[in-house]
Structure formats: structure tokens, C-alpha cells
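Q: Please design a sequence for this.
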């Protein structure tokens, strides 16, 4: 769809536009769910509606024949999925006792990783066949797999998660957008602000690697089939995340969240520096091990810390607000595609070198900033 020499810029713009939608939709949906009054409870109606709309939009990714169509489809998909995700994220805060949030976050992230690892790996192999002109049915199969997964998990949650009937309960909360209300409250609680800033940098590092890793394998490491190699690396990273993410949740309950987040930043930076030297698949593989352990530590402990910081009666709003950090960090990371192309045009591979050095700095900075986080007095 786009010129080869501008693929990073177009990919970055595409991702940034979708994440911009997510930044505002997710906290607003979480805020609305905190105040919703329904026989189904506060969260499940949003989960059902968002998922069903996403299923209607998803085929547009395969139908789109021009970049503008792809852009519109992705923005609509982000709108739908974040209507579901904002309220969904509050389930742990709604149901899990304080002393078990680390373990619960570990389970949640373990299952996230299993799903992500499975579908990224499968999509990599299926799209590898599609990219070598072996038929469009491979593209449609790669879209059908996540469509089936999100429908099945939505149906399971709606049917078997038992929320309190909130129909008829009074609410005296002022009517404001979730993002607007959340920003005001974040200013009132500096600990939550430092948490968001820390998460912003750590997510920016991970998102940069995830977004441009395929092109790095293609343009710098010069692998013959980078899509299938990326699928293999996703499995390797996923395995080490699996080995780390659940124990990390338990350890954070015992020893605290901050030390493990600091370790994750150091390991992530080390993995990036190894990747900078990579000119073979084996070196990339070693780097991916560091990335897997760092990601596992980060996902469990950072999310457990988020659960510690949010007031229970505003869990959807606050956890939705974390998407300002997540989507903002990922969005800026992906918008850096234009810088990669510009520097690569000046000197082959320079763009990837600069962006990887930036990732190492993001890892260290994000892990250090979390040291400034203090608990909210309203979080109990």
C-alpha cells in the first residue's frame, strides 16, 4: 500500500492514530462503567457491546485496499475494543482482596501472554505464507483466529462472571468525560502521576521494539523470511514471559512492586544493547530472552502496582486512565517511524541504531521513576 522507503513512517502514523483514539475512549468507558446502573452489573454490558462492534469492524482489515481504508478500520477497531477493555480492566479491583492483587495480576498477565504469544506466532506464520503470494485465504485465516477468540472470551465472561445488579442504585457523580475527571484526580494524587510517567517510558520501550522489530530483522539482520522469524521470536519471548509473569506477581506481594520493576528495566536495557550488535538470528534470540524476562516482570508488577493505587469505587476510571500512559507511550514510539526512515536515508541502519539506544534509555528512566510512587490515601 505504501512506498518501501516510507514503510516505517506509514506504520507509525497508522498505529499512532489508533492509539490516539484509545487514549480517550478507554478512560471514558471506564468512568461510565463506574457509574453505570444495569441488571448485568457495571462492566459486562460494555464488554459485550465493544466486542460485538469489534467483530463487525475486524473484516475491514482484510477488505481495505488503500492506506486510508486501513486507517479508518483501525481507528474504529480501537474505538470498539477500548469500550470493552476500559471496564474489563477493573475486574481485579472489583473482586480480589488487597493481599492477593499481585498474584491475581500474575494470573491475568499469564493468560494475556499465552493468548498474545499464540496469536502473534500463528499470525506471523500465516502472514508469512500470504506475503509469499500463496493465497489471500491465509490473510483471512489470520483475522478469523482472533475474532473467534475475542467472541468466545466475551461470551464466557458475560455468562459466568457474576456482578452485582446495580439497576436502581443512586449516583451523585458529576457528568464529565472519564479522561477529564481522571486527569483532575491524577493531579490531586502525585503518586499516581509518577506511576503514569514511569509506565509511559517502559511501554514506549516495549512498543518501539514490537512495532519495528520486523523491519529490523529484514533490513539490518537480513533474515530471508522475517515474518516467520518474528513468529519464532514471539514464541521464545512468550516462553520466558510465561516463566516469569506468575512468580513475579507472587514475589511482588511479598517483597514489593518497585524492586522488581527496577530489575525489569535493567534487563530490558541489557536486551536492547545485545540487539544493537545482532547480525544473526542467534544473537537476536539471546536478546529476546532478556526481553521476555523483563516483560514478564514488568507486566505483572506494574499492573499490580496500578491496582494498589486506584480507589475501588473509581477503578474503571483510574485503570482506564493508565491508557494515557500505555497508549501515549506506544503512540509516540510508533510515530517515530518517520525518524527511522529519515535517518536510514542518511546512513543505512542509522535509524534503527538511534531508536534502539532510545529504548535502552526508556527502560532505565521508566524503572527509576517508579521509585517516586507513593500509595494513594483513597486506595482502600
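A: Design:
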Amino acid at each position: 500500500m505504501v512506498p518501501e522507503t516510507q514503510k516505517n513512517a506509514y506504520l507509525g502514523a497508522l498505529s499512532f492514530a489508533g492509539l490516539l483514539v484509545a487514549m480517550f475512549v478507554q478512560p471514558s468507558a471506564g468512568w461510565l462503567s463506574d457509574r453505570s446502573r444495569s441488571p448485568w452489573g457495571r462492566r459486562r454490558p460494555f464488554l459485550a457491546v465493544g466486542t460485538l462492534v469489534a467483530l463487525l469492524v475486524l473484516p475491514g482489515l482484510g477488505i481495505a485496499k488503500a492506506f486510508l481504508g486501513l486507517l479508518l478500520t483501525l481507528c474504529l477497531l480501537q474505538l470498539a475494543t477500548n469500550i470493552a477493555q476500559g471496564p474489563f480492566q477493573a475486574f481485579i479491583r472489583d473482586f480480589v482482596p488487597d493481599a492477593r492483587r499481585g498474584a491475581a495480576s500474575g494470573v491475568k498477565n499469564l493468560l494475556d501472554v499465552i493468548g498474545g504469544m499464540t496469536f502473534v506466532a500463528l499470525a506471523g506464520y500465516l502472514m508469512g505464507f500470504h506475503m509469499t503470494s500463496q493465497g489471500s485465504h491465509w490473510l483471512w485465516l489470520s483475522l478469523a483466529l482472533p475474532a473467534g477468540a475475542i467472541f468466545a472470551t466475551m461470551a464466557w465472561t458475560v455468562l459466568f462472571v457474576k456482578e452485582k445488579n446495580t439497576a436502581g442504585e443512586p449516583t451523585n457523580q458529576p457528568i464529565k468525560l472519564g479522561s477529564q475527571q481522571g486527569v483532575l484526580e491524577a493531579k490531586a494524587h502525585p503518586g499516581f502521576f509518577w506511576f503514569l510517567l514511569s509506565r509511559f517510558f517502559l511501554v514506549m520501550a516495549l512498543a518501539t521494539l514490537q512495532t519495528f522489530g520486523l523491519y529490523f530483522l529484514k533490513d539490518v539482520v537480513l533474515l530471508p523470511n522475517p515474518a516467520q522469524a518474528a513468529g519464532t521470536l514471539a514464541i521464545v519471548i512468550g516462553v520466558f514471559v510465561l516463566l516469569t509473569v506468575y512468580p513475579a506477581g507472587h514475589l511482588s506481594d511479598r517483597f514489593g512492586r518497585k524492586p522488581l520493576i527496577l530489575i525489569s528495566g535493567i534487563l530490558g536495557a541489557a536486551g536492547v544493547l545485545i540487539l544493537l550488535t545482532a547480525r544473526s538470528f542467534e544473537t537476536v534470540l539471546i536478546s529476546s530472552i532478556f526481553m521476555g524476562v523483563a516483560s514478564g516482570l514488568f507486566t505483572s508488577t506494574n499492573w499490580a502496582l496500578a491496582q494498589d493505587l486506584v480507589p475501588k469505587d473509581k477503578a474503571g476510571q483510574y485503570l482506564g486512565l493508565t491508557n494515557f500512559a500505555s497508549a501515549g507511550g506506544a503512540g509516540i514510539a510508533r510515530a517515530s517511524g518517520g525518524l527511522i526512515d529519515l535517518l536510514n536515508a542518511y546512513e543505512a541502519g542509522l535509524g534503527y541504531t538511534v531508536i534502539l539506544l532510545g529504548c535502552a534509555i526508556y527502560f532505565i528512566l521508566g524503572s527509576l521513576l517508579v521509585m517516586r510512587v507513593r500509595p494513594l490515601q483513597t486506595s482502600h
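Q: Thanks. Anything notable?
A: The chain has one domain: 4-158+174-372. The two ends are 51 Å apart (CA to CA).
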